[in-house]
Amino acid sequence: MTLRSRIIGIGSYLPSHISTNDDMAKIVDTSDEWIVERTGIKVRHFADEQMSSSVMATYAAQEALKAAGISGNDLDLIVLGTVTPDKTFPATAVYVQSALGMKHGCAFDVVAACSGFLYALKTADNMIRLGQVKTALVVGVETLSKITDFKDRNTCVLFGDGAGCVVLQAQEVQGTTADRGIIDTLIYSDGSYAPELCSTGGPSTNHDVGYITMNGREVFRHAAVNMAQVSAEILQKNGVDLSEVDWLVPHQANIRILEATAKRLGIPMEKVISTVDLHANTSAASIPLALAQGIKEGKIKEGQLLLLPGMGAGFTWGASLIRL
Ligand code: UT7
Fold it and tell me: What is the rounded average pLDDT of the residues 265-294?
């Protein structure tokens, strides 16, 4: 027998304000046709001035805790992925900890951009497997609209705000791929690509938060290759055939990246959860938001095998293999 992290609750939150492509065309020189054709994005949600990342994360967490049938104080750990923290410090996770009434354990952030949820998941899963914690909240949350340059048409149409999370709990299992829980997670980074997608600012660089800047073509070129490669690697490492995977739940940046990843991997688009049309790119929040949406739509069901690849700034990338 071995310890595995089982997902016992999932939650999500999207701010109520929706911006259409036509709304974006009133701000920059763009069009609904261009955005839909090049990205698949139709709308995105934007947080208002008062809505911080910790507030959105708390709403998502409350939904996940309710689904899990536990309270905030039952959590031993919060790991939160974001590039849009409430403040430079302390960690956004501690605000969530306080809002949930969690009085023990620890809460911290990880910064891995669009791979942030996978990095957070791997961290929490490792601590559960080692027996250090029993119950953990893993969050991906972003208020990207607050670091978006709304004068730059190359980036401002691509991003949205939101939060998604899962509650993990330690369970004794045999340790096979038939057992429910997180089977494996692989994470990678290559810092030589940092300039291709980054913020123009930072506390120790220029005392400024900065705006998102991106070499879209270079990111695009790597995204499909890296996500397909790491997906194939995690399947092979765990002796799983692609045909056993029920759903690919990838990071949602661009429908063309989703299609290219699926094609390279050899999985039909019918098995790919796509929410990029509704959410745009929400960075660390995109995978748990897609997971929650797939469940709400009745596509993803308990017991199914899920493959979650992601790729983003750093570059960082990774994949998680989960029996829900
Ligand atoms: O989550 C990980 C991070 N991000 C990503 O994964 C995004 C990766 N990259 C992409 O999704 C795509 O590269 C973009 C959607 C950003 C751009 O699509 P593309 O097909 O690679 O377009 P492009 O950069 O080659 O630009 C084509 C043209 C350019 O005009 P010229 O130079 O050919 O005259 C751009 O100026 O499209 C122009 N353009 C726009 N036109 C209308 C760029 N943005 C816009 C816009 N509206 N919003």
Answer: 98
